[in-house]
UniProtKB/TrEMBL annotation:
Transmembrane stretches, start-end: 20-37, 43-60
Source taxonomy: Bacteria, Bacillati, Actinomycetota, Actinomycetes, Kitasatosporales
Name of the protein: Cobalt ECF transporter T component CbiQ
GO cellular component: ATP-binding cassette (ABC) transporter complex
CDD domains, A to Z: EcfT (cd16914)
NCBIfam families hit by this protein: ECF_T_CbiQ
Annotated signal sequence range: none
Length: 253
């Protein structure tokens, strides 16, 4: 976890949210998602308030609405699944614009859409205000198993290496006049995937030997100790605490 590694979800800025320690933001988002999931699906107004809280956090982080909405498209497969639920679920039926839909399916679709969208929005906001290296340091600070942190670190660091290897192999195929146009070319693409796997595996072995030769014993050193003050924890807790108040109202009203 040496040098910084930027990613497309990150939006550089100097907002109060950017300035918070990464482990504070991770804990806040995790608690917020837990509260949202615990909210009864019948409390429709509560999810509207959660959306307002997310919008307020995005405003404090100076993250434009377009940036946030564009990256919410990642949940499109879940939206498609939720849309099908009213048609395939069993139970009492209701008529909606001439269609016979399952009442339980409608509630299930709403539950998935509302909670899933809010969870994805909170995660996108976290990624937009925290660099990947800081996220790993935050997980390390939160006492996540070191092996998982190392796996995530290596995956991030060498993901671009593998992508670049794929790009070079594609250029090599194009330079030889190859262009996949049908099923008959799937065999060549499969061989390319196999070759990429072998190259990646061999590269991983070389990297591991290089690390062992430099004293690697299975654990990565902590290169930064990002402590948080009480004021920073208080600011980070504002989102989940406000969401908890909404959740309690949703269960009592």
């Amino acid at each position: 976890m040496g040098a910084g590694h930027s990613h497309k979800l990150y939006r550089h800025g100097h907002s109060p949210v950017h300035a918070l320690p990464p482990h504070c933001k991770i804990a806040a988002v995790f608690c917020f998602v837990l509260v949202v999931v615990s909210t009864p699906r019948e409390a429709v107004w509560a999810f509207g308030l959660y959306a307002v809280l997310i919008a307020a956090a995005a405003g404090a982080a100076r993250v434009p609405a377009g940036f946030l909405l564009k990256r919410l498209l990642i949940e499109v497969p879940f939206v498609a699944f939720a849309v099908l639920m009213p048609f395939v679920a069993e139970g009492p039926r209701v008529d909606v614009i001439g269609l016979s839909l399952s009442e339980s399916g409608l509630w299930g679709a709403w539950n998935i859409l509302a909670k899933g969208t809010l969870g994805v929005a909170a995660s996108v906001l976290l990624a937009a205000t925290t660099e990947l290296r800081e996220l790993l340091l935050g997980l390390q600070r939160l006492r996540m198993p070191p092996q998982l942190v190392q796996i995530a670190s290596f995956m991030i660091r060498y993901g671009d290496v593998i992508t670049d290897e794929m790009r070079r192999m594609r250029i090599a195929r194009l330079s030889r006049g190859f262009e996949a146009r049908g099923v008959r070319h799937w065999g060549i693409l499969a061989k390319s995937a196999g070759a990429l796997f072998i190259r990646s595996y061999e590269r991983g072995e070389r990297v591991h030997l290089a690390m062992v030769s430099r004293g690697y014993t299975g654990t990565m050193p902590v290169i930064a100790d990002t402590t948080a003050t009480r004021a920073q924890w208080t600011r980070a807790a504002a989102l989940p605490v406000a969401a908890l108040a909404v959740c309690l109202l949703g269960w009592t009203l």
